[in-house]
C-alpha cells in the first residue's frame, strides 16, 4: 500500500486533493514539485514547522539561481524581484497545514480500501466470534462508520441470504449462514460469506453499493452445486450401467486407477454398493455436464484423452446393449475416430440436453382436463360460481395497483382536490392552502386567459378566489421602506442577515393614476423630508378639487427610484426595499442622510448593511467620496487615503465604469495623449478592423466602435478582449497606449466581476491601474497645453476607480476582521441587482407607469413566495437549472489576506504601473525608483454635499434626452394586462355618464360618496352633478401620455444615427484624394513648411460653441471644405520621413491639425526590421504641393 501511495504524485495528487475538498494554488504546486514533496506518502508525513523552514531556505538560496528568468514569477509570485526575501506568509502556512491533513485523510482511505486479507479462509464454519477481532480492527480504521452501523449491515446481509437459501434450496433448510462484515474505507461495506453446501470450503466476497448488498454471484455459486447434483442423481439408468461396467473391468485391472479417482471431488458421489469408485459413462456424463456448465465439457474432454486407452470401446457396447467385456487390444486410431462422430458434437449434445431437461416439465395440455372438470362444477353449483367471482374481483384491484405508475406530486394534489370536491355543488368547493398557492402560481405565470381554461377543465379555484387571495396580500406603498418584509424574506430562505444595497432609477411613462388600496394619487414626485426620505401619503384623493389642484401644482415623475437589497450569497434573489417617483433634483446631502437613516433602521431589525452601490450618479458618487476618502492618508499606507474599516464601504458598478471608459475612447472630439509619442485613439481599432484580417481573429464590427451606442456592454467586452490587445500590439504600429487603455478597461471590470480571482489578485489588478491613472493624470497636469477636461478620462470615471480600489481593501479588512471570509463576494457589490429588477419588469411590459411598476413588483414577490412554498411539491425546471449552474460555477472558498500581504500586492501593482509609464515616456526611468503616486481625489466636506451641481456628470452617460419616447397608441411588444383592460372599460362608462345628461346620474348618485370612496362628484355635460371614478378624473386631467420604445437599443442610444463606416482605400503610389479616412497615411505641410507624415486617427470640427458641437462622427472627411464651413481638423500620429524611413515625432501638444494643410495620400508603410519604410521620397510628395 505504501508503494501505491508513493506512486500517487503530480497531477494525480492534486486531483485527489481537489476531490477531497482542497484546492492547491499553482505557485505552491510548483514549489512542492521542485522540492520533491509532490507525492502522497511524503506529503502526509510532512512536518510543517521544520520542513517548511527547509523549503523556504531552498527557495531563498538555491532555486532562483537555477531557474530561468521567465519562470521566476511562477514560483516566487510577489517575491519575483527579490527571491532572497522569499518567505511563507500566514495564508500559505495555513494552506499547507490544511493540505497535510487532507493528504493524511486520503492516505487513510487508501489503507482502508481493502479491509480483508488476500489469503483465503480454509475453515467452513466461519462465525462472528472467529472473525470478530478482524471486524473490530476494520471498524476502527473507518472513522466515519460506527460499530452499530456495521452490526446492522451484518444482520441485514445474513437475513437476506438465509431467507433466500431456505426458500430456494430445500436441502439447506437447516443451514444458517454467518458472515463477516467490515467497512471498506469509503463509508460503505464489504463482507465474506461461506458457502452453506457441505464439503465446499469456498468463502465468497460480497460487496455493497449505496443501499443494497450485491449477492447475485453468491447465489449463483450455490446454484452451481445443485445443478450438478440433480443431473447426476436423476439419471439412474446410467448409474446402473456404470456399476455393471466397473464390476467387469475390476476383474482385469488393478486398483491403481480407482485410487486416482478417490481424490477427485467431482466423482466422489459415484460409488457402488461395495464402496468402490465408479467411472461414469461418457455419453451420460457429457449430457449432464452440458446442462450445468460448458466448462465441464472441456474438463471431460481432457479426462477422456488421458483415460482413452483403458476406456476402450465401451460406448459401442452401450449402443448395442451388449454386456460383453471390454477388450484392451483395440486399435488406438479406431478409438480416436469414435469420438469424432457427429453424435458427440456440441450441437448434438445441446439438443440432447434440452430434450432431457423437458422430460420433467409440465405441459399446458395437462391442465385441459382439470379445467373441464372445474367448468362443469361451476355451471352445476351456483354458490361455487359466486365465490369464484367474488375472489377474482377482490384480487383484481391488487393487481391493477401494482401495475399503476407513480403519479407526480402535482397530479396527486389535483387528484386529491378533485376527489374532495367531487360530490359538492358548484360554488361549494373548498381548497386548501397548497391548492390556492398552486392556483395563484398558474394565474401569475400564465395570465387570466390560461387560468380560465384551467379552471374550467381542472379542479382549480375560481378566478375570484385567486383575486381575493392576491388582493389580501400587502400592497407596495410608494416611498415606504419594506424593512420588516426584507427580514422575513431573508429568514424564509435561510439567508444571512447581511445585505448590500444598490440604488438606481429607471424611466417610466409619465402617467398619473389613482390607487384605490391607499386612496392616493400615484405618479407625482414625492417631496423629501429632513432625512432625505420620500414623504408617503402626500397626494390623498379626497375630492375632485384636490385632485385637480395636484395636477396644477405638480409634474409627473419621469423616473422611478429603487433601492434593492442583495444578500451576500451567490445566486440569491434580490429584494426591492422601496420604490418612488423622482424628478432627479435631489442633492448629495439627501443621499447621505438617507443612508444613515437606513443603516440605523436596518440595524434595529437585526440586519447589517455592509455597503452601497450605484452606477456613477454624481450625487451618490459625492456621498461615496465623502464616506470613503479622508483628509489625511493612512499613517502606514501613504497610498491609501481612507479608513481600513468603515461603517460601510461604497462601490461604483464596475460595468458602468467600463462603459464610461469606452465612451471616452470613442468620443471623436477628445484627444487622449499618453506621452510625447503615443495617443489613445479608436483609430487604431478602425485600422485593425479594416486590415485584411479575418473577423474570427478580432471578432469586432464597425458597429462596436460606434460612439453613439453608449450602453452596449457586449461591444465593450469585445473591444477590450485579450485577443484584440494582442493583435493591436502585433499588427498596428504605435498602438501601445491604446492597447494599454483597453487592458485597463478589461481589468477594472474583472477585478470585481470575475468569480475565479483570489483576493490578492483582485487588489493587485485594480491598484495597478489606480497608480497608472495617477501617473497619467499628473503628467497631463504638468504638460503645458493639456488639461484634464479634454485630455484625460472623465473625472467621474477616475473617481469611480479610486473609490472602488479603496472599497476593495475595505471589504477585505471588514470581512476578515469579522471572520466572515465566505461573505467576500465582490461580484455582488454592484448596481446590477437594480438592473436585473428593471429587466424583469420590462420583460412583462416594456412601457409602464409608476403605479403599474409597483403592481409588477408585488406580482414578482408573490410569484417568488409561491415558488418557495411549493418547492417541495412542484418541480420548477428553471429553478433547478439555476441551482445546477450555481453548483457548477461555485467559487472557491478563500482565506482573506493579512495587512502585510496586501502591502506586497500593492507594491507589485505600483511597480507594474511605473513600468507602463516608463514605456510610454510618462516617467523617466531614473525617476521611477522612489516615485509613489498619491490619491488625487479631493476629500469632500458636509458643505460640499449641499451644493447641487452637475460637474461630475459627463455627456457620454445616458441621459433622459437620449431615450426615445413613442406616443403611438399601439405597441406590439406590450403585454396586455387584465387590470388595464378593466380600467379602460370603467373610463368609457364614466365618459358616457358625463356626456349623457341626468338620466344616468340617478344610478350613480345612489353611491355613498366619502373621501375614501373610489368615486368623486363632478358636473356632467348639462351642468348636473354626476359621480365618476377617481381614475377617470385623473385620465381626464392629464394632458398626454408617453410610452417608452420597446426597442432596448433605442432606449440607450442617442437620437441621431451613426455614420456608415467605409473600407479604407489602399493606394500604391502617392495621390491626391477628395476624401481621406481614418487610418489613412497622409502627407501634410507643417508649420515650418516641411513635409510631415501623419496617420489619421479621427476628425473634429475646428470651431463650435462647446465640445459636443465640435464632434464629427464620420470616419471620412472631405479635403476641400465647402463655403462657410466650420473647418475640419485631423488627429494624427506624426512621423518624419528620413531616407524612406519614418521616425516618430515627439509632439509638445497633441491636437487636431487643419485639413487645409493636406498634400496627398501616401502608400501604407511596411514594417521592416522594427522600422517603418515608405516606398516614396520627399521629392515625390512635394510634386503635389
Number of helices: 46
**What helical percentage do the residues reach?**
40-55%
How many beta strands in the DSSP annotation?
27
Question: Proportion of β residues?
Answer: 5-15%
End-to-end C-alpha gap: 89 Å
Radius of gyration: 45 Å
Count of the domains: 8
Mean pLDDT across every amino acid position: 77
Largest sheet: 8 strands, antiparallel
The stretches of 5 or more residues where confidence is low (pLDDT under 50) are 114-143, 251-329, 398-403, 954-982, 996-1005, 1046-1050, 1054-1061
Shape, per Cα inertia axes: extended
Class inferred from helices and paired strands:
alpha+beta
Task: Write a short abstract of this structure.
With 1185 residues, this protein is α+β, with helices and mostly antiparallel strands.
Can you walk me through this structure?
The chain has 1185 residues and is α+β, with helices and mostly antiparallel strands. The chain folds into eight domains: 2-111, no CATH class; 128-224, no CATH class; 367-394; 425-471, no CATH class; 476-640 and 831-871, no CATH class; 654-827 and 890-937, no CATH class; 978-1051, no CATH class; 1075-1182, no CATH class. It contains 46 helices and 27 strands. Strands 19, 20, 22, 23, 24, 25, 26 and 27 form an eight-stranded antiparallel β-sheet that branches. A five-stranded mixed β-sheet has the order 9-8-5-10-11, with helices on both faces. A hairpin with a 5-residue loop joins strand 1 (180-183) and strand 2.
